[in-house]
Amino acid sequence: MPLLPRRFERLKAVLSRRMADLTVLLEAVDKPHNLSAILRSCDAVGVLEAHAVSLAGRSRRFNHTSLGCEKWVAVHPHATVEDALQRLRQEGFRIYGTRLGGAAMDYRQCDFTGPTAFVLGAEKWGLSAAAAAGVDQGLFVPMGGMVQSLNVSVAAAVLLFEALRQRQAAGLLPLAGEGVPAERRQQLLFEWAYPQVADWCRREGRPYPALTAEGELAEELPRTVRLRC
User: Fold this and answer.
1) Which of 39, 19, 68 is nearest to 167 (CA)?
2) Which of 94, 75, 72 is nearest to 85 (CA)?
3) Handedness of CA 93, 105, 98, 129 (dihedral sign)
4) pLDDT at 85
5) CB 1 within 8 A of CB 28
6) How many helices, marked H, and strands, marked E, lie in the chain?
7) Can you list the residues of the chain whose pLDDT is less than 70?
8) What pLDDT is stored for residue 103 in this prediction?
9) Using one digit for the tens of pLDDT, what is the confidence trace for 20-38?
10) Residue 137: CA count within 13 A, CB half-sphere
């Protein structure tokens, strides 16, 4: 089925508000309902992509009620949390970890307007020692009840929406694609609009075809490929 113009405009509008400098690193958050809920919050806030370190032998699965969220927020796997933290640090992120302790700060006192990565661990045991040692700043969400922590997906949503609030208040939210490099934005637009054609192009080792202003393929493709559109 051809891509409808209103669908293409919707994809462009969402991409124009994505932020490459806000992300999450999930350590051993392998329960499908938690992982899916976190990615839904990422999508809602405008996070471009997420990172994950899974337990040995575990594969990432998504809750059926949230199936599809991984299409809009790519999850980059890492072999170890040390590898993930190193990559984030090389990319200029300030890394915040959710943990209790004397040096941890109330999340509302932190500045999330710059490149920000939130590291969250499975709620049963929290961050590993390696992850906790690798963060730039520990933070916590104040709790007024008997329990000491939120569900990991709820904590992620609280932190992400606080980052969104701070950036909006500072006038830093992207409105016209400023949050993602132009080349990357165009690549994602094609992959979102024509995922099956994008898969074919990658297998063939060829660049993506150009798109018209209306979102149509500007290049004649083999019939078997066009039928996938």
Assistant:
1) 19
2) 94
3) positive
4) 97
5) no
6) 9, 7
7) 1-2, 56-68, 100, 102, 123-124, 227-229
8) 87
9) 999 999 999 988 899 999 9
10) 16
pLDDT for 57 equals: 54
Contacts of 227 (CB under 8 A, 6+ apart): none
> Is-contact 195 71, C-beta < 8 A?
yes
Q: Which amino acid is present at 59?
A: S
The amino acid sitting at 115 is P
Burial degree of 16 (CB within 10 A; 0-12, 13-18, 19+): middle
Place of tokens 């045991």: 125
Q: Are 23 and 89 in contact (CB under 8 A)?
A: no
For residue 97, the cross-strand partners are 119, 138
Backbone angles phi, psi at 124, to 5 degrees: -65, -40
Distance separating the N- and C-terminal Cα atoms of the chain: 6
Token match 């149509």: residue?
Answer: 216
Domains in the chain, start-ordered, CATH in brackets? 1-18+175-229 (no CATH), 20-169 (3.40.1280.10)
Give the CA-trace dihedral at 103, 106, 109, 111, to 10 degrees.
Answer: 80
The rounded Cα 226 to chain-centroid distance in angstroms is 30
Identity of the residue numbered 113: T
